[in-house]
Queue: 3 jobs
Job 1
Amino acid sequence: MRAVVFDGVVLGLQFGLLGVGLTLVYGLGGVLNLAQGQLAVLGAIVAAVRLDAGSAVVPAVITGIVVAATVGLVLDLTLMQPVYRRRGEDRVLLGLLLMLGVAFIIDGVLTWRYPIEALTLRIGGEPVDILGVRMRTGSLLASAIALGVGAILVLFLRYATTGKAVRSVIQDEEGAQLCGVSPATVRAFVFALSGGLAALVAVTRSMTSPVTVNAGIDFTILALIVAVVGGLGSVSGAFLAGILLGVVNTVSAHYIGTYITTIVLLGAAAATIVLRPSGLLGAGRE
Amino acid sequence: MLELAELSAGHLGENVVHRVSLTVAEGEAVVVIGSNGAGKTTLFRAVCGLLRPSHGSVRLDGRSITRRRAHDIARAGLAYVPAERHLFPDMTVAENLDLGAFPRRPRPDRRALVLELFPRLEERRRQRAGTLSGGEQQMLAVGRALMSEPRLLLLDEPTTGLAPKLAAGAYGALEALRRHGLTILVAEQQVPLALGFADRGYVLEDGRIQLEGTSAELAENPGVQRAYLGVA
């Protein structure tokens, strides 16, 4: 049981990072990035292709992350501009549809060009005992990275000037402008950040199981569920929800079967929407 | 310092303010008087870049800022305090103040000046802005605007939602700011208070300037007395 819960936490930390990217982009511009998972897979496949070409692991991975972040940035600066000019429901709907289209395109191009590509990072070393549970080094490294990056992200948003600027736009866009913060710059920065984070999660996932070309939709759905359960716009909520859902995921997979996990996760999201519409830590505004 | 020439602006192609011309000289305090719906807020929003003017120009220190974006104008030294305040409700008072200095780091002497002006904010430093009273929120909005070390402060109805005693206190704080050399343009419905504070004033009705003059001239104008000062 303890081992299953540990595995859940490992998975959950990565879910959390995936959800944070989605939740920040939504909080800033009202865009639900349905291509989040495809950006993750894009990063992973770029890394895999670089590895095939003989590149070392770290440069390959960094290239993958940078490509995903750049695509995110370009999407924000081009396709999302008409979205940001709209208000309210119009904006959410247009953003959602455009990003869904982007998801299909990335999926299509990757499947066409690299149909059998997958990223698998084998992390060597003996399993390590943690509280009496033998953990694979791959899992430990993945958790350490997710935890480290998550902590940096939380500290950045809390204390850094740019981090405060990000929060200011989420809380009151007009107020932020009056303070000299450019919402457009903040949105572009966070869109890129979210693409990079997604690719990073795909990379850490590949340390325990292969990330294939068609995994995008699974990542997107996970990110959505995590963001909804955590409360759209809430960073700490996304992490909390990520860890909770990671544990729910592995426990149900272990005791019932893998087939049930998606249903259980979607059930958790549905229950959250019914019981706490603003999410675990959602502010309940808007 | 600030010059509006024939400025028109509105929403969805429908102008709310029509060809407004107005000037504020360095060190001056000027009031725009008008009732609800006269167009004061639209005018101010067009000046500070939150709304695109459809006609005319805005100059700050002789340079046109007509079509520049709000964050850019804020960095150019024009701070706007809207009537709705637009604070960051989930951030502390201290964080709100710090953001006022964006993109620079907040300067300690500036923070000290703001906290000296509004000692209440010092007591509430760690409290979330959303939990402050109306008067405290107004202080924080002005304090946040001051953190950017602006040279021109625009205030839209700073006394909105304040009890009469607090409203007088708000103008007391503005007086202190003037002594620090700040130039101030304020929109107000509470005309006696505003005329007591300002050097000059403009009367805005239906989006047009109907009258202008020194505060003393406006206070003696029969039309102003009838409409805004409750003199029969």
Job 2
Amino acid sequence: MHIVYPVVVSALLFSIGVYGVLARRNAILVLMSVELMLNAVNLNLVAFDVWLRDRLHGGQVLTLFVIVIAAAEVGLGLAIVLAVFRNRKTIDVDRLRDLSEDLTEADPEEVRP
Amino acid sequence: MNGTIQAPTIEYALLAPMLVVFGAAIVGVLVEAFAPRYLRSAIHVPLTLLSLAGAFALTIWQAAAKGIPTKAAAMGAVAVDGPALFIWGTILVLAFVSVLLIKGEDHFVAAASAVPGSAEEEQALHEGAAHSEIYPLVLFAVGGMLLFPAANDLLVAFVALEVMSLPLYLLCGLARRRRLLSQEAAVKYFLLGAFSSAFFLYGTALLYGYAGSIDLAKISTAVGSVGGQDTLLYIGAAMLGVGLLFKIGAAPFQAWKPDVYQGAPTPITALMASGTLVAAFGALVRVFWVGLGGLDWDWRPVLYGVAILTMVVGAVLAITQTDIKRMLAYSSIAHGGFLLVGVIATGKAAAQNASALSGILFYLVAYGFTTVGAFAVVTMVRDAGGEAWHLSRWAGLGKRSPLLAGIFAFFLLAFAGIPLTSGFFGKYAVFQAAVSGGALPLVIVGVVASAVAAFFYVRVIVLMFFSDPAADGPSIVLPSRGTAAVVGLAVLATVVLGVYPQPVLDLAHSAAQSLFVR
């Protein structure tokens, strides 16, 4: 198999992930899109590892690290999203607008504590 | 076939500062698991402070007694060289100071999972619950900050990046007051941080495909020798750059910084604004100089543009801010731009590189102390509902509390780079290196941006001293010993570095002299 196939597939996967992060408004779906990007990286690393015939398998080792850290990241992300959902009953990232530029002009008393 | 293998060598003595911090963090987790609740804080605070102080002592001992190593440690994975040791010392002192600030007052939520105003929250407050986990989390973040600028291959850099960032995402969401803003800051920081680290990783993967290694030195040799795969190299380097520039909050990727700095608990903002910036700059300089040094003809124009954009965006947008922490965040963005000027001021000669590097190192120390001090002052000006964040509430502070307002004004002048403050010599060192490196237009933009920035610093000073205090103005809390020590130390550092900067300049110069090990 030519190296171009896995590389193009992973580039597509990464692009889908980027699109998802930019287009989705649900925090969980944004998180899933980030995971898609990380998996594109994994595919890329493994393909390059085989292609380069890396004796130390640096690419595959890095893939293992990415998998572990991605798992940690998801755990943490879900905890944060859950805390927000408990308080606001929504995880729509477009509605998290308390910290945006225009509101800082408002009177300090109007902002929720 | 005599059955022996060659074991890898790990220089434990060289890595000791980092190992002490990580070890203390793990002990902290065990304390959290096994110690009774009423004892936890009493164990955590000394453990955290002692481990940071011990790590600092080990760093000094390494630099003073054993000399600066000329070879990367741990089989080439971690480079403990002159700049790394200098940055370690800086980060450890700044982290120590930030921990004093963290333990100072009740900045953190009692039970993060409870909804504000609910029965659970009442109960947690009644029981006097506290998240003492913040201390191990801070230690993990500091450990990541130590590893990040010393990482000599991209795998270690990625792991360090995540170890540094993941605890900070959590810490951002733990403010006691204005909880919704704090959690929103955590979500924004987390989503954007994960997005940017995915870019960093994709860049790593492409550079691995290009060079056949993730070692910075091997990437550097491959840049000169491997041909025919330039696409991989260029896209990889660009994506790596996106990941790193995001961490320092450079201009197209600066959007998270004001939101996160505003929402996070102020002591954590102080830690992020000082420690994370120092660590990320160390890593950025190492990756671009050591790993992609042969490609500088290509990345230099891009960073040129990014530096200009960062300085202008930081300085101009800060003018319109009405929130004190947001204003300081934009000022931090502008300072990131000034530091990028130093990154560009490299040349072919080693002496030019050393002077640019020592300028960056001195600037990082000067800015780090001033910014911690400024955020410490912010924690002390209180309204009924927490910190008085709106600038209009700061009006007339100079008449109520001349000392505090004077100290804050002094920090603002240091940010602006007025002579006799540390900020002046920081800017001078960086801009001078840039001029001799042939980046004069950049320096002109930098000076203009500094002038614009000075306008809004002076505006705050005028607001504090020359307008009448509101009748129901904010109260100045009597600082705890920790907070008072932080402010005192920051004032001292800002004065000493501004009046008599030579020792630290010499130290930065000798740390930069050997440049990075390869």
Job 3
Amino acid sequence: MSLISWGMYPKTQNRVHKLTTKDALKNTLQESNELIPFGNGRSYGDSAIADEIVYTKPYDYFLNFDEEHGVLHCQAGVLLSDILEAFVKRGWFLKVTPGTKLITVGGAIASDVHGKNHHIEGCFSECVEEFSLMRADGEIVTCQKGEELFLATCGGMGLTGIILDAKISLKKINSQFIRQTTIKTKNLEETFAAFEEYKHLPYSVAWIDCLAKGEEIGKCLLMVGDFADDGDLAYKSASKLNIPFNFPSFALNKLSVKAFNWLYYNKAPNGISKQRVGIDTFFYPLDAIGNWNRIYGKNGFTQYQFILPKESSFEGLKIILDKIAQSGKGSFLAVLKLYGKENANYLSFPIEGYSLALDFKIEDGLFELLDELDKVVVEFGGRIYLTKDVRVSKETFEKGYTHIEKFREYRKTNKMDEKFNSLQSKRVEI
Amino acid sequence: MSYVLIVGAKSDIAKEVARVYTKNGYDLYLAARNADELEEFAEDVRVRGGKSVELKELDVTAFDTHESFYDSLDEKPLGVVVVSGYMPEQHEAQKDFSKSLNAINTNYTGAVSLLNIIANDMEDKRRGFIVGVSSVAGDRGRKANYIYGSAKAAFSAYLSGLRNRLHESGVSVLTVKPGFVATKMTENLDLPEKLTAQPSDVALDIFNAQQKGKNVLYTKWIWRYVMLIIGAIPEFMFKKMSI
């Protein structure tokens, strides 16, 4: 059985080693040349793909919960959804969660994921108290906040070793409901103004219609909110639909995307409206459809996610949105978000500014378009998110990440570069 | 809260069944041979559910210990899920009767011995549920694994009769017939992806079917129809086939 990533591109043959025990992992490390850890396969590109893969999801025991401080100790293969199912009913929630709960704790650390509250709470590493990791030589080390191994591993794409377990702190909630406000804007100016106006609220994200042109560029639905104080905690994971097969690749074209965006945008009331929604609806809308990646057809898709510094965001986004609209290449989803301060981790994606994420199905001409967009991103001082990426060039990547040389050197000194590699790490030479 | 007794708690399916029941508020008895090896897993289930999880030593093939095993449970379980099973290599089992006997005792005789005791108690109390994990292999004997299959066939027939008997006392009996499941038992087989279930999906199917009081569960569901077709093949053809 070979593993593929969420974007179903590239499809390669690989040898899969299930992570079951530390001893077995040590043997695997000794017997293999190079490998990369793989969690639940939700990163989009080739960051967890290599000839040999350590499949960490089966390593999924909860080890301990410190009720007083709200600190959970669990193995790296535990899914965020497992944590929610166990702890929401006891009044705890993840401090930081991305837009899918179907990722492993190990993956969350390796990608240093972020969520709708980045501008307040930062990345996932903020809630990681410590983790243990198996190094290339099979030794197990425990790593605390502030150590260099911590800075390199959080956001380090699995390139520093195999994360075994972690202590993560949860946050208290009083309700399984979120008070949501939806703001419908008419253009990018209004969108930016709305982000600023509501940035005191912990959660915010905007869905952008990226086929809009001219005056309407950047029109969006901005959703902001916070947990309610009242209501119950009787959270049950929403049952999910499944897409049982790959859609034919023509199913998703300019017209169908336009129709979807139009419906989505128009269904929302004008101006400002308020809703009370559940955790799954607010944080994980796409998890309700299992295997939604199949709608892009069997050739797969990629997500292009970049971030621009705040001062150049407006100008840069306008240019990029314009190029996308002109290309007519469909993006089912375009997500815009205002981020808070950058952290000290070597390869974490977020910087203070605006990030845009869009899906594209893999087709002729796509990578040329993305290369074009890369130029704008670089010109405006931005960077590309490795967790989503499958094609960025070494040059583009390097220009965005200021700590890249430190990361490379650290890997080299500790001989991590001889043992842990993905297709991506080889492409961008990290 | 009510206890559920899981028999054969070391299997991959059993572990996921334990997680589903704890998530839904049940306390657990996890029974297996060398049960102390399950301590780390028991802690996992305790942290997940915040419920009581007790390990119990039990050998399903040590029939004469079953009475005292059940007596030793302080609070009698509301439900029991029998997952214990053993699939020998067919070509070995047909040469070595001790392997055949072990398959029969683990999959069938041991379950009968234990469930007789539990069923009597539940019938007296007029409440409870029994879940037996049998197999589609019991629906029709095939040369590839008929020794395992025949033991499961006997277990399915036992559960059917038990369901019939206990219906009047309000105790439900669920027969579970998994098809291919990706577990330790099948690790070295090359299974077709579309017909193969994950242990966590099987566990969720079991929980839902049990809560709804269903009688027979095929999981994945498609196996009901696969077995319908296999069952419909006339014997004069079937005997020549290799499936």
